[in-house]
Predict the structure.
Amino acid sequence: MKLSYFPGCSLGSTAKEYDYSARSVCQALGMELVELKDWVCCGATSAHSTNHLLSIALPSRNLALAQETGLDLAVPCSACYNRVKKADYNMRHNDEMRQKIEEIVEFKYRGQVNVYSLLEALITKIGVEAIAKNVKKPLKGLKVVCFYGCLLVRPPEVTCFDNSENPVALDNIVKALGAESIPWSYKTDCCGANLGLTSSNVVQGMVNRLLEAAKEAGAMALVTACPLCQSNLEMRRKERGTDLPAFYFTELIGLAMDLPDCRKWFNLHLINPKPLLQSLSLAD
Amino acid sequence: MSFLNGDKRNFFNAVREMSRQPIELCYQCQKCASGCIATEYADYYPNEILRMVQFGQKDRVLNSSSIWICSSCETCGARCPNGINIAEVMDALKEIAIRENKVKEKNIHLFHSVFLNSARAHGRVHEGTMMAIYKFKSGDLMSDMDIGWEMFRKGKLPILPHRIKAKGQLRKIFDKTTAHS
């Protein structure tokens, strides 16, 4: 199976471990990711906060590139995914906008590319059962809470994925890996996103609320599918020790599949996850 | 909605048209406010913003922090019984505030400009220089130095940006979208 892959800017820098683990895991599960040639930034929050048209045009450029490949598109970063999916939704449902964008981006929209988050691609194309079958080292004893954040599931009419109030896709994967996913009420709360740099007090408040809730639920770690969530959860906390690291779900799949690169990914975290994994005999 | 005052009507209509949202349907159930995690840092609840738009209170809305502190998490819109995507309304209000030079949260706007300048220059955002330029321009030089250094040490802030090939096409997208709006 082959999919186009739009990693996004963060996966080339602050979220390198997500990119590395996503590529390794997909390859090991038989899903070939072909990086879009010459992809551009999706514009993220900055485009939709300042220029609506630009916020549809930039991701549409990537839609145009994906269309040329003839493959469906997988996007690991929740923010990029949301922008591309929203652009696709606009192109499908708003004729006036589609015509404007076709003129600006200079392409003809054919509506043949399905846009998936990497999580959705793995769930629908590979499946939880197949992931479970590939587990070599079950993550026994690891108790986590799954944090989906905002953009993976909202707005529901655009994402059309899972339940927007109580999603279960990540929980199902975590269970398939042999770990325990603890129910909690903060699955789809916001981490503060890009306010981290401009209003770190706001993000620190939001993140600490999440960490306290995770601790209260009895979690040892958090699992995310978004580089903004992961970096805010590890960066914007009062004290950075080794408690409650935030894993990308692909890192946990890789760990359970005993892929050789795991160590490299974990070294990149701001909260070192090794003491936790060692205490459970899941890492050397 | 009917207005006696033309300016108020124009403002309401402009926000409604730009956001493409049925703002007049809001009946103040406050479901948006009860799920909004940004309210403790903002000056108005989302339903208050909608009410002020309904009343055409342009200056109060455009000068609020809330429209900038909103992180577009979209919880409010997903739960609104009247199908109002409030994050889209907040975006339209930000665009109008920029146009009218009434930006309350200057640093947040500065961040967006620096971010988009980086995307425009290279095709992709170069996080290292983007953050450095923001820090320099906002005057907030000292915070996060430790985190920045740690990221750099781990190789997470590459020194050189990746430059895309189709620069001309990208420039056109920026120019045309700016001209349209």
In short: Residues 131-279 of chain A form a domain with the Rossmann fold fold (CATH 3.40.50.11810). Chain A touches chain B through 57 residues (CB under 8 Å). Residues 52-69 of chain A form the longest helix (18 residues).
